[in-house]
UniProtKB/TrEMBL annotation:
Keywords, in A-Z order: Membrane, Transmembrane, Transmembrane helix
Low complexity composition-biased segments: 77-87
Name of the protein in its database record: Uncharacterized protein
The UniProt record lists the keyword Membrane: yes
Transmembrane residue ranges: 45-63
One GO BP: carbohydrate metabolic process
InterPro entries: Ig-like_fold
Disordered as annotated region, ranges: 66-108
Native source species: Glycomyces sambucus
């Protein structure tokens, strides 16, 4: 989820994250309830274009019956008798809770389910990214695919990257399965596919069921998440070519084995799909230094996921405690991670910035200003649930210093 170029994640997936096409079908009875925190495991960084992939371990979903719809739960601090009576724990709910049965994740008579680490480096035969398209598939070889999350060029390298693994039941009363989201960049856009993966009985892994195939223009699958009771949810942003200067539309579908895709956009719980906005203000400290204060606000209607701030600065600006910040024309890494924000909640951070004497600035900085830039980003693959910032126009802010600001600098 940066300096007009947004965040590293947005750079890597810009073409693919703004396209979609509708598909339809009805809805399950259950709702994700409460604020369930999920452990996050950082998997490394993609150089230049791919951001670090952060993958969560499976977590149990809290369930509540909701008259046939997946709807928003009451706020977490609501403790009325009605709410308490309706709550159902995963243990009480029985089958289809997305909890992992004893022994299933580690072997035994049931499916052997992989973790993210298990799949990285493995060879797996996957469905074609371009069914029946002949030579196009040579750019993303899948027979077998060698799975990676290693650093490398995001565009045109043809590597098959593992983006996320979640565990969920795909059919009522069925076993918990591992659904993996894979991506490939044969050119300047990412294509994706989601498949269920299990042990092949010989110490390796195999794709056991095709879940969804992403297409950059037709069905640009961005993320996956376990459904509240049965199935896997698919997040699909709006069609390519639409105005990207404001909020983006999106659709959510649910896949279940043997059923058509269901459009559950209006009934799925939208935790993690929200609008994070950042503003940066400057304050003259009167001693030749300046304070840059960033305010991050959850301007959307739903709780966010945890998020990161990424910083960059003109070489003419030194930021206390942060040596070696990249210039704003370069790729940057997250500087700090923050907990999720409730709707309307804010968090602030500040840094002391010391400008060099003006005659040491570059010509571009002297003409247009020296910038300290802050970007906010929910890591798309950092949780079982979705993490999607639907308005990219307000996820970065900057403090600019000009000649008048440093005229009195000692």
């Amino acid at each position: 989820m940066s300096t007009p170029d947004d965040t590293l994640f947005e750079e890597a997936f810009a073409d693919f994250a703004h396209a979609a096409e509708l598909m339809v079908d009805p809805v399950d009875s259950a709702v994700i309830h409460g604020r369930v925190r999920r452990r996050r495991t950082t998997k490394g960084a993609m150089a230049a274009a791919l951001a670090a992939l952060v993958v969560a371990v499976p977590a149990a979903w809290w369930l509540q019956e909701s008259n046939g719809q997946e709807v928003d739960p009451p706020p977490a601090d609501d403790t009325t008798a009605v709410t308490t009576e309706a709550e159902t724990s995963p243990e009480e709910a029985g089958g289809g809770t997305n909890s992992v049965p004893d022994g299933q994740a580690t072997g035994g008579d049931d499916l052997v389910l992989p973790t993210f680490t298990d799949l990285v480096g493995a060879e797996i035969e996957l469905p074609e990214f371009f069914p029946g398209a002949g030579e196009l598939n040579d750019a993303c070889p899948v027979a077998p695919a060698t799975i990676t999350d290693a650093a490398g060029s995001a565009y045109g390298d043809g590597k098959i990257r593992l983006l996320k693994v979640v565990q969920t039941t795909l059919e009522e009363d069925g076993p918990v399965e591992a659904v993996a989201l894979f991506g490939c960049t044969p050119g300047d856009a990412l294509v994706t596919q989601a498949v269920s993966v299990a042990g092949d009985g010989e110490g390796g892994w195999e794709a056991t069921e095709a879940v969804a195939l992403g297409d950059t223009n037709e069905f640009p699958l961005l993320d996956i998440a376990p459904a509240a009771v049965t199935g896997v949810l698919l997040l699909v942003p709006e069609p390519h070519g639409t105005d990207q200067s404001g909020p983006l539309d999106y659709d959510i579908y649910r896949y279940r084995t043997g059923a058509d895709l269901e459009d559950v956009t209006d009934t799925a719980y939208l935790w993690g799909i929200t609008d994070l906005a950042v503003e940066v203000e400057k304050r003259d400290n009167g001693d030749g230094t300046w304070t840059a204060e960033a305010t991050v606000t959850n301007a959307g209607d739903h709780e966010s996921q945890a998020f990161t701030l990424s910083l960059c600065a003109d070489p003419a600006l030194a930021v206390d405690g942060l040596d070696g910040l990249p210039a704003c024309t370069e790729a940057r890494e997250p500087t700090a991670e923050y907990e999720a924000l409730a709707p309307g909640e804010t968090v602030r951070a500040e840094w002391t910035v010391t400008p060099a004497p003006f005659d040491e600035w570059s010509g571009d900085a002297q003409a247009g200003g020296a910038y300290f830039d802050v970007s906010v980003d929910m890591r798309a693959y950092g949780s079982d649930a979705f993490a999607f910032d639907y308005d990219n126009s307000n996820d970065y802010g900057a403090m600019a210093l000009i000649a008048d600001d440093v005229a009195e600098t000692p």
